[in-house]
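Review form for a predicted model. The reviewer records the input and the model, then writes brief findings.
Reviewer: anonymous (R2)
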Amino acid sequence: MRVLCVDVGMGTSDVLLYDDGAREENRTHLVVPSATQVVGSEIRQATERGVPVAFTGHLMGGGPSTVAMLSHVERGLPFYADPWAARTFSDDLDEVAAMGVRQVDRHEIEARVSEGAVRVQSGDLRLRQLLEALRLLGETAPLDGIAVAVQDHGEAPAGVSDRVFRFQKLAHLLADTGDLGRLFFSADSIPSYFTRMRAAAACVTGEPEGRRLDVVVGDTGPSALWGAALTTGAPCLAVNYGNGHTLMGRVTGRCVDGLFEHHTSKVSPEMMASYVRRFAAGALENSEVLSSGGHGVIAGAHPFSLDEVELRVTGPNRRRFRGIAPREVEVALHGDMMITGCYGLLEGYRAATGSGR
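Model under review:
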């Protein structure tokens, strides 16, 4: 089985070409700038040249791309976007218009490009270019499937915080069983409110290698938690300190008991130590996490002592939070911490497709 796993973050996209015929350490894997970093750079180059941008394609993650767009508009330069790409900046298109983005259809995008605007392709994954890069590296054997992880806040109803909405949907999907496999979807089964996942699936569906492939999409946070727990059979407290978000849960196998999510930049080591201690005890309140800018917390059904479990940490910001618990382990699957999420994503692919090990 050969599956291309792409874990799309805010800072990097982590790529694993899983091949069950290759030894773990020898499997091709890459850590490259994330799509939003690449798009942000392309927009900044247009800004430096003083030319308009024509933004077209699929909804994708914001962050750096949004900052670059705002800087472009502040310079008084036109920024055109088709409606689907414009949702990168907000699900509310009136809000996008208020930012200074001129929403046009695909025909006008082409007209603006012919007049000198720089086309910037939106989307969390540029599959054709990635497959070509892999081919140039010697990876020419056909794939069986593609799995992509993105962080999706969902399309929240008017007046509802996207942070609250995202966490409510995660809690709903995990209710009763805590099965992480329920957070991974085949391309045709993604819930309608997970618009970024649907857009990511659209980036890879079709027949990229001349034949139909299995496509699975999931969320980056659960992918990291599942990956962090893979090398232990015992219950553990898994934490992913991502570039954008920190996610924590007590994981046993493929099940999570309790969940916490916050913005990494808003959390100090002292805050996190307190969060970890009270999460384990079942004493951390959802209102506190929300009021400090986080997404929320779901209390676990079974409080536990930090002396009883390993704190298994992963993510590029893990060094900021060292020493929080007595039994702390940095997870680096097969020698590389950055692809922990890819291996969790691979488990999600197996769950969604029913493929075995």
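Findings: Residues 80 and 148 are 28 Å apart (CA to CA).
Further findings: The longest strand covers residues 255-263.
Recommendation: see findings above.
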